[in-house]
Design brief:
Blueprint lengths: L6 E5 L4 H13 L4 E4 L7 H6 L8 E4 L2 E4 L1 H11 L11 H27 L2 H22 L12 H6 L6 H8 L3 H4 L1 H11 L2 H4 L5 H16 L3
Parallel strand pairs: 1-2
Antiparallel strand pairs: 1-3, 3-4
Catalytic activity: RX + glutathione = an S-substituted glutathione + a halide anion + H(+)
Family: Belongs to the GST superfamily.
GO cellular component, one term: cytoplasm
């Protein structure tokens, strides 16, 4: 029997992008070596493995690096075919899952980041767009257990790490996500019942403390 090929994850514990990969590996039961990266002093292995973006996460499998969290999650599903698929088998449903997963990156993360760092009119514009994007996501979720129906999958993994940012978004945006989007909050709680999720995510207050420190340091905003 051939030996298992080495699986190494270069990551940073509070990164929502790395958390996606950790969730996917846990869902598939993939044993791996976790290597914590100091993003202020990136390791030679990270710089060699992701020379284009020089960012985490990077999954190294059998010596071959794969970058970008959503690409890594889909790669995991392709390589480790045992267990429940992370993406639907139907081509249309797979395309739809990819659409909403990339929507999280382009709309939720981008708008949320702008809302946190800006003040004044730019802050209000980002907040309005952020709320509209959450409304679109809740409309896609509707009354389903997960975004893929009864199956926990790609869109859930893409979005659920940002539920630990909800407290921070609420603090800086002065609104209540639970009041405005109760279905999303209920969905987040269901996801947290999965061991793969609960063991991969950070405490929201810990996330807030880190983000508040970074926001004050970079933008002077309190």
């Amino acid at each position: 029997m051939a030996p298992e090929k080495a699986v190494v994850l270069l990551d940073e514990r509070v990164s929502p992008f790395g958390q996606r990969v950790r969730i996917a590996l846990a869902e598939k039961g993939v044993e791996h070596e976790y290597r914590e990266e100091d993003l202020t002093n990136k390791s030679p292995l990270l710089l060699k493995s992701n020379p284009v973006y020089k960012k985490i996460p990077v999954l190294i499998y059998d010596g071959k690096p794969i970058s970008e969290s959503l690409i890594i999650v889909q790669y995991i599903d392709d390589v480790w075919v045992h267990g429940t698929p992370l993406l639907p088998t139907d081509p249309y449903e797979r395309a739809n899952a990819r659409f909403w997963a990339y929507f999280v990156d382009k709309k939720i993360y981008d708008c949320g980041a702008r809302m946190l760092k800006y003040t004044g009119e730019a802050h209000e514009e980002a907040k309005e767009e952020f709320m509209e994007n959450l409304k679109l996501l809740e409309g896609e979720l509707q009354d389903k257990t997960y975004f893929g129906g009864e199956n926990f999958g790609l869109v859930d993994m893409a979005f659920v790490p940002f539920t630990t940012w909800f407290y921070t978004f609420e603090f800086y945006g002065n609104f209540s996500i639970e009041k405005e989007f109760p279905k999303l909050v209920a969905w987040g709680k269901r996801c947290m019942e999965r061991e793969s999720v609960s063991k991969s995510l950070q405490d929201p207050l810990e996330v807030y403390e880190l983000l508040a420190y970074l926001i004050k340091k970079k933008y002077g905003k309190v």
